[in-house]
Amino acid sequence: MLDLFDRRLRRDAVDDTPGCRIERVGEVVRRTGPDWNGVLWSALDENTADAAIADAAAHFDALGVEAEWKLYSHDRPADLADRLLAAGFVPEEEETLMVAAVAGQPREAVLPDGVRLVDVTDPGGVELMDRVHRAAFGGSWDGMREQLLGQLGRDTTVMTLVLAGDVPVCAARMDLHPGTGFASLWGGGTHPDWRGRGIYRAVVAHRAGTAAARGYRWLQVDAGPQSRPILERLGFRALSTTTPYLRPAPPARAAATGSPAAD
C-alpha cells in the first residue's frame, strides 16, 4: 500500500488546478502553483541529494514563493532531513500517514442533537470554515482561506461544515485524485468546546460516503496526534510519518506581498 501511495500520489502525481504545473526534474517531482509550491517526491542518495535540494531551493527562490519539501520517514537518503535543514528548510510538526479502505468505513454521519452537516459551496461557507480552523488549530490561516476560495466549485474538492444552530463547530475537506483510487482528507478540525462528541468521526463517515459514491477505493490522511487515535479505531493503518520542511519566500518578495514570512 505504501508503494502504491508513493507511486500514484507522489511520483506520478497529476493536478488539474488552473495555473498548476507538476514536473519531474531528475529524481525530484515538484509542484508549482497558485496555492501550493513544493516537492512531492524524490529518489535521492548521498551523492545526489545536496544538488537536488539546491536546485529546488533556487527554483522556488527565483519565483519568490514559500516552498515545502514534503518529507516522509521512508524517503532516502537517511539523513535527508539534516540536509534540508542545512539548506534553509525548517521542519514543522510531524504527522502520521494513514490509509483505510473506503469499503470498510462507516458512511452514516451520526451527529449530536441540534447539529447538522452541510457542504460548502460559497465564500460565506469558506469564511465559516476559516473561523473553525483558527479556533481548532490556532495560528495564521490566511493562506488556507485563499486556497479554499480558489477551490470552490471544483469537482475534485469537497468542503464540509458542521453547524450547531448557525455556529460553525467543525470543518473539513476532501480532495479527490482521479485515476489513482485515492481520496485524501484534510483540515478536519473541531472547535475545542465541541470535541469528544463524535463530530470528527461523523465528518470522516460523510466523506467516506462521498468517496464511495464517486468510486474511490482508499482514504488517505496526514493525521495529527488528536485525530490519529480516532482514525485507528476506524481501521486506518499507519504507513509512515511525514514532516513539512518549509523554505520561506525570499525577504523582498515576502515584504511586498505581506505574507506570514514577513511577520
Shape: globular
- Give the topology string: H per helix, E per strand: HEEEHEHEEEHHEEEHEHEH
Q: Low-confidence parts lasting 5 or more residues at pLDDT below 50?
A: 253-263
Number of helices: 8
Task: Give the domain tally.
Answer: 2
Q: Please identify the top-level CATH class of the largest domain.
A: Alpha Beta
CATH topology of the largest domain: Aminopeptidase
Distance between the termini: 41 Å
Radius of gyration: 19 Å
Mind explaining what this structure looks like?
The protein is an alpha+beta fold. It has two domains: 2-95 and 242-262, Aminopeptidase, CATH 3.40.630; 106-234, Aminopeptidase, CATH 3.40.630. 33% of the residues lie in helices and 30% in strands. The protein has eight helices and twelve strands. The protein has helices at 2-11, 49-63, 80-86, 123-137, 142-151, 199-213, 227-233, 251-257; strands at residues 21-25, 28-32, 38-42, 67-72, 90-91, 95-101, 115-119, 157-164, 167-177, 182-190, 218-223, 237-247. Strands 1, 2, 3, 4, 5, 6, 7, 8, 9, 10, 11 and 12 form a twelve-stranded mixed sheet that branches. A hairpin with a 5-residue loop joins β2 (28-32) and β3. The longest helix is centred in the first third of the chain and has 15 residues, at 49-63.
